[in-house]
Amino acid sequence: MRLCRFGESRLGLVQGSKVTDVTAALDLLPAYRYPLPGYDLLIANLEKVTARIREIASSSQVLALESLRLLSPVANPGKIIAAPVNYAKHMSEVASDSQLSAGNPSHTITIQKAGLFLKANSALVGAGEGIALRHLDRRNDHEVELAVIIGKRANNVRAKDALDYVAGYSIGLDITIRGSEDRSFRKSPDSYMVLGPWLVTADEVPNPGELNLSIVLNGETKQDSNTRFMTLGVAELIEMSSSFYTLHPGDIIITGTPEGVSPIVPGDTIVAAIETIGSMEVKVRAAEV
Q1: Which of 85, 154, 174, 282 could crosslink 165 through cysteines, CB 3.0-4.6 Å?
Q2: Which residues have a Cβ under 8 Å from the Cβ of 37 and sit 6 or more positions away?
Q3: 3-class SS of residue 70
Q4: Dihedral angle sign, alpha carbons of residues 282, 250, 124, 85
Q5: Could you tell me which of 130, 158, 168, 169 has the C-alpha nearest to residue 240?
Q6: Domain 80-286 carries which CATH code?
Q7: Mean pLDDT of the chain
Q8: DSSP code for 190
Q9: pLDDT of residue 251
Q10: C-alpha span between 57 and 3 (Å, rounded)
């Protein structure tokens, strides 16, 4: 099943070029008073919601996908976890290009030594919201990544069991400002974490380690690889991250980017694609001052 968020946080069932408005299925979600839970309610109740969607879809309004402004399919992740230098060829290109490494030694050590890092939740946007670049005097780069959405509480999970904790997958765009500062600082401006265009439930992606992924920038292919070249696969990343902190429904893990990252500027158009999931077009603009 493919689920999107659009408009004023409406829920859609994506089928080809059509979206069925199944927002009524959200009535099943439990109501909370302050303090609110630190996880995403939709993802925590995804099985119940998808069952209700199957019941109401045939009698719900159908809309044209192209007419909708898509938001992030996950509204309230507890945390966004990112995997640095998780493709060997990307690690090599960073090590050989001073504009990419910016003299930062953390760019040239393996993921096993570097570990993972966090991006601010406030960076999260959907494909229809676009990227608003800051610090235009510095290089801003695109990075396409497979995004994993955790479906249930996970703590000290072993790799062999890890995929049982996945709710679904999306395309992630990890935008970064090049420089010497810590990764989480340079990768956390507003709109520097694009997630979309929808969530594809885990049952439709039996092998996340064999997916083509690419970026086309203004009509020119920049990144073109496959998730089989990840140093640590999805299961291993869940094992690593859950050994340091508990994962909760709606937490997002972006799994690293392959070689071919390149700068983006206002006016650019990015088309990011991942096999089985789909593609999303994202517009780049300058942030308002």
Answers
A1: 154
A2: 44
A3: strand
A4: negative
A5: 158
A6: 3.90.850.10
A7: 95
A8: T
A9: 98
A10: 12
| Tokens, residue 64 | 């044209």
The pTM assigned to this predicted structure is: 0.95
User: In sequence order, which residues have a C-beta less than 8 Å from that of residue 18 and are 6 or more positions away?
Assistant: 62, 63, 64, 65
- Nearest CA to 3 among 46, 67, 48? 46
Q: Give the tens place of pLDDT for each residue, 1-25.
A: 999 999 998 999 999 999 999 999 9
Beta strands in 62-191 (DSSP E): 62-64, 70-71, 80-82, 117-119, 124-125, 131-133, 140-141, 144-150, 166-174, 176-177
What mean pLDDT comes out for the span 261-271?
A: 98
Whole-number Å distance between alpha carbons of 24 and 73: 16
Question: Locate tokens 């429904």: which residue?
Answer: 249
Q: What is the reported pLDDT for 129?
A: 98
The domain spans of the chain are 2-70, 80-286
What separation in angstroms does the CA of 229 have from each of 47, 51, 136, 213, 225? 31, 35, 32, 11, 8
Q: What ranges make up the beta strands (E) of 114-235?
A: 117-119, 124-125, 131-133, 140-141, 144-150, 166-174, 176-177, 193-201, 212-217, 220-226
Question: Cα–Cα distance between 161 and 158 in angstroms, integer?
Answer: 6
Whether the predicted pLDDT of 107 surpasses 80: no
Instruction: Grade residue 46 by pLDDT with cuts at 50, 70 and 90.
Output: very high
Q: Which two tokens stand for residue 239?
A: 């094992």
**What b-and-e string marks burial along 2-11, b requiring 16 or more CB atoms within 10 Å of the CB?**
bbbbbeeebb
